[in-house]
Write a structure and sequence with these properties.
By secondary structure, the protein is an alpha/beta fold. It is built from 11 helices and 16 strands. The chain folds into 2 domains: 124 residues, ornithine cyclodeaminase, domain 1, CATH 3.30.1780; 195 residues, NAD(P)-binding Rossmann-like Domain (Rossmann fold). Helix content is 35%, strand content 23%. A hairpin with a 4-residue loop joins β3 and β4. It is globular, with a radius of gyration of 19 Å. InterPro entries: NAD(P)-bd_dom_sf, ODC_Mu_crystall, ODC_N. This is Ornithine cyclodeaminase family protein.
Length: 328
């Protein structure tokens, strides 16, 4: 749709249902992977901007691309869940990179709810396929992994949905801070045909994939308990004062980050375990390295993926939604 056509018909708006319909899990993961293979470099991503707001903060995430650019504008209101409202709300504005003319507006909350699990599962599937010493599936990779999910909010729901699509045959258990929320998640997903049961921290040593999708400010479990072959993804928090995993796990793991620069800015899971200077020397693989085969597992070490959320992921997903929606 051209700028002239948009002016004549009004700016298209993609609500939450339209965003979901245009970006099924396998399609969203494939789009992120293709973007990284086609030249997207996470290290060139724009830093996100935080600004105080009444009762919370504004979060602005701009991203530039060859065909499309855009900005996600969110509000973060920590007190909202107690009032029965969403903690994070917002919109995404997609623009044409050549003219900078607005092309579409879409539900930014739903966009986030999709791109975060899609990015996590992109990382997890590639890590599972990374053998010691080279590409391919290692002998220790389970054919039907047991997935343990910490959290019972929107991101926990959608991480289970994404994992169910990307890791067929998996078994799922969820650990919630409040048992009633975990039971609600189990019932909702059961109605969608996804079998999940309520689990516990005691399952950590027996889990192949552990997904941390919480707002916890302190580590969720003892990192020494994680199995040597396991893959852990910590994606629920951002900020240097927040962490879902402990320094023990970080130090004993092969680490993958979304982007090295963004991790140094916001990955509180990593910085306490090693200083910024040490991480610069370690130079962990980022997502681009991972999908291009530049990551190898070390025998006897778990792998940890640490994500804080990046603007290029929003842009890729928004472009997918726009192109899918305007072709219908």
């Amino acid at each position: 749709m051209t700028a002239t056509e948009i002016a004549a018909t009004g700016l298209p708006y993609f609500d939450a249902a339209a965003v979901r319909a245009a970006a099924p899990w396998t399609t969203a993961v494939a789009a992120l992977e293709r973007a990284l293979l086609d030249g997207v470099d996470p290290e060139e991503d724009s830093p996100r901007l935080f600004s105080p707001a009444p009762g919370g903060e504004f979060l602005i995430m701009p991203a530039a691309g060859r065909a499309y650019s855009g900005v996600k504008a969110l509000t973060v209101a920590p007190g909202n869940p107690a009032r029965g409202l969403e903690k994070i709300q917002g919109v995404y504005v997609l623009v044409d990179s050549d003219t900078l003319a607005p092309l579409a507006v879409m539900d930014g909350t739903e966009l986030t709810a999709i791109r975060t699990p899609a990015t996590t599962l992109l990382a997890v599937t590639h890590i599972l396929a990374a053998a010691p010493g080279g590409a391919g599936v290692p002998d220790s990779a389970p054919a039907a992994p047991h997935v343990l999910v910490f959290g019972a909010g929107v991101q926990a729901f959608n991480h289970v949905r994404a994992a169910h699509a990307l890791l067929p045959g998996s078994s799922f258990a969820v650990v919630g801070r409040r048992s009633e929320r975990a039971r609600e998640l189990v019932a909702t997903l059961a109605a969608e045909g996804i079998a999940v049961r309520e689990g516990s921290v005691a399952e950590v040593p027996h889990s192949d994939v552990i997904l941390c999708t919480t707002s916890s400010r302190t580590p969720l479990f003892d990192g020494a308990l994680v199995a040597p072959h396991a893959v852990v993804a910590a994606v629920g928090q951002h900020g240097l004062d927040a962490r879902e995993v402990d320094a023990t796990l970080v130090r004993r793991s092969d680490v993958v980050v979304e982007g090295r620069a963004s991790a140094l800015r916001e990955a509180g899971d990593l910085i306490p375990a090693r200083s910024a200077e040490e991480w610069q020397e370690v130079r962990p693989a980022n997502l681009r390295d991972l999908v291009r085969g530049g990551f190898e597992r070390t025998p006897g070490r778990p792998a940890l993926y640490c994500g804080v959320g990046m603007a290029w992921e929003d842009l890729v997903t928004a472009a997918l939604v726009y192109e899918g929606g305007t072709k219908q």
